[in-house]
Amino acid sequence: MTTDTIDAAAAGTWQLGDLTVNRIGFGAMRLTANADGSPSDRDRAIAVLRRAVELGVNHIDTAAFYFSALRSANELINRALSPYPEDLVIVTKVGPGRDLSGEWLPMARPDQLRGQVEENLRQLGRDHLDVVNLRVYGPEPLAEHFGALAELRDAGLIRHLGVSAVRQHQVTEAREIAPVVCVQNSYSLGYRLSNDALIRDCAAHGTAFVPFFALATSGREAGASGVEHDEVRAVAREHGVTPAQVRLAWTLRRSPNVLAIPGTGNPEHLVQNVAAGALRLTDDGLARLETVHQAAG
User: CA 135, CA 91: separation in Å to the nearest integer?
Assistant: First the structure.
């Protein structure tokens, strides 16, 4: 499959509220550091972001707590893409926080969420945030936190709201407070099968399901562990693509409301990830991959 001319629009589109995004997006977390933990190359990270937009990516996922010793994902996005294209949707998340040394802080209190929203606004150079996900830390009720974000939405600081790392009952709880345009959970082929039911629920409500770690194998991202299922490799060989592209194509085939946000600091991997949106797996291949998926349960 020729990849260098495939646009993100090949994956189709979905609505985040009144915002239209291509179903292949980009996750910014990997831009801030190399695999060994050292700070990323600034110019390369900026080039990857600009290339992503050139390839039709109009959905970028980020957070103020995505930073390394010298790099901030939000500020890289601001430097690379501002003034922002009119169709670019930037999704961020609040709830977690890190101190200046990078150590994780306790979950933010509801009254601290405004400060986190304002920090994202400052770093991104925006006067409002397109979508903000509340990232939660466990199965506890989220009404107080989500209600605080709903107030910020009503104040014009946020356009749409979503939730992340949630269970079904928390999604239901959030919907009773304000519209939920997306649910962002970890999920991939053979990983976190409990989200299959949540994907169906989201589809029924017109809500996007946005998996992070869509390249995960056995709880780790493919490539990082070097371990991949033989069947995934076999399907990749049949299509002349990489196993990562097969995983992304499988993810998109789960349901029309599923979006993918693979992240990378590698320009070649970026092109391959976007091209996965055009990969059409055969019925036989999908059946074999479904066997892999179910076996993991």
Answer: 12
Contact 24, 8 (CB under 8 A): yes
Q: How confident is the model at residue 223 (pLDDT cuts 50, 70, 90)?
A: very low
Q: What is the pLDDT of residues 60-74, one digit of tens each?
A: 999 999 999 999 999
* 78-110 pLDDT per residue, tens: 999 999 999 999 999 999 999 988 999 999 999
Active site residue ranges:
66
Q: What is the rounded distance in angstroms from the CA atom of residue 122 to the CA atom of residue 108?
A: 18
Alpha-carbon gap, residue 77 to 177, rounded angstroms: 31
The reply to whether the predicted model has a pTM over 0.85 is: yes
For helices 283-295 and 230-239, angle between their N-to-C axes, nearest 10 degrees? 160
